[in-house]
Amino acid sequence: MSTEVKVPALPESVSEATVVTWHKQPGDEVERDENLVDLETDKVVLEVPAPEDGILGEILKPEGETVTAGEVVAVLNAAGEGQSATAGGEEKTGQEPAAESTAPAEAATEGEMPSLSPAVRNLVEEHDLDPRRISGTGRNGRILKEDVLRYMEQGGEDQPAATPAAAPAPSSEPAPTPTPPAAEAPAAAVPAGEREERRVPMTRLRQRIAERLVQAQQNAAMLTTFNEVNMQPVMDLRGRYKDSFLKAHDTKLGFMSFFVKAAVEALKRYPAVNASIDGTDILYHGYYDIGIAVSTDRGLMVPVLRDADQLSFAEIEAAIADFGQRAQQGKIEIEELTGGTFTITNGGIFGSLVSTPILNPPQSGILGMHKIQERPMAENGQVVVRPMMYLAHSYDHRIIDGKEAVQFLVTIKDMLEDPARLLLEV
């Protein structure tokens, strides 16, 4: 008895998805709720679990295929189904199992091209490798992605599968046999005098990011105002209490919670920055849902801290740490990426000294944090060295005047340079 593996219900406003990675191959045993395949939408990556225990049969939608909700992507056979079919074949044909077991060896000897899964084929083609020289550890000698990665780590050497293919040459021309592979390898990578180009389709997430960035540039009157903040008070406070904070709350005390708290206080004073435009109306939000930009290998995500004004420092730090971990694993839920009234992004973790952040539509403001760098500053007629950070506030000038934008950023600066005000809300 077989079971169909179907695409789950897709998030609202998402009509289709792309098959990204199959974690199992036909013939592999799977357990109930084990992840079989990852599907990428323009917002999140969805995991498709196995509906029951069994053996993965046929894959109907290989990697790179576009699928819709409810579409069948694979067939899952019952646990004993694969073994009984094999036994029946032995009774009828007798010699067929032996022929199957020797097929991989014969293919290697004759130099035939082995059958590859889409993921393995893409990896082989991308690095211009000869799959006949790669020894497979999968079922019936099938080449797995791990085999290709191991082959490349070893520099393409010491692979048992290459021995049969090279065996006929020494009998006729013993001396030249070792040299051709070494001479061919560089030529196969990039021919001399040529400039290599690769065309790679955008992922759905990257397409969505590009679409929203263009939308922000075209649909908003975006301006940016800058200021700088002395981070010494926050750093002193953090250094004094970080150990006890970790012990009490089981989470580290970072800088982001201070910025979230400061931004919330500034948003309360300047509600236009927390508003958005809907047609010819302005929507003033009476809540503070702060988006935190998180960089991943797939692109930028902005999960949202709901009701940030009601969260403690520890709750903010724990939530942000959780966002970062799950974003790298592709496990952020679609509901966590929707909404948001204001966004904070930190380019300083990558070394950015100053930048102009782009609005996250339909929001009207975004705060950009940057690298903390010691600089000479004048204080009370004396030159002192302070750990300074440039702040950038990009805003939609259609509903936020320059005066409000500047005062909003100055409020954040004042809160951070005297962090006790965050607790007293003054």
Automatic annotation (TrEMBL):
Pathway: Amino-acid degradation; L-lysine degradation via saccharopine pathway; glutaryl-CoA from L-lysine: step 6/6. Residues 81-116, 155-200 are annotated as: Disordered. Residues 115-152 form the Peripheral subunit-binding (PSBD) domain. InterPro entries: 2-oxoA_DH_lipoyl-BS (IPR003016), 2-oxoacid_dehydrogenase (IPR050537), 2-oxoacid_DH_actylTfrase (IPR001078), Biotin_lipoyl (IPR000089), CAT-like_dom_sf (IPR023213), E3-bd_dom_sf (IPR036625), PSBD (IPR004167), Single_hybrid_motif (IPR011053). Its cofactor is (R)-lipoate. Residues 96-110, 160-170 have a biased composition (Low complexity). Residues 2-77 form the Lipoyl-binding domain. Keywords: Acyltransferase, Lipoyl, Transferase, Tricarboxylic acid cycle. E2 component of the 2-oxoglutarate dehydrogenase (OGDH) complex which catalyzes the second step in the conversion of 2-oxoglutarate to succinyl-CoA and CO(2). NCBIfam families: PRK05704.1 (NF004309), sucB (TIGR01347). This is Dihydrolipoyllysine-residue succinyltransferase component of 2-oxoglutarate dehydrogenase complex.
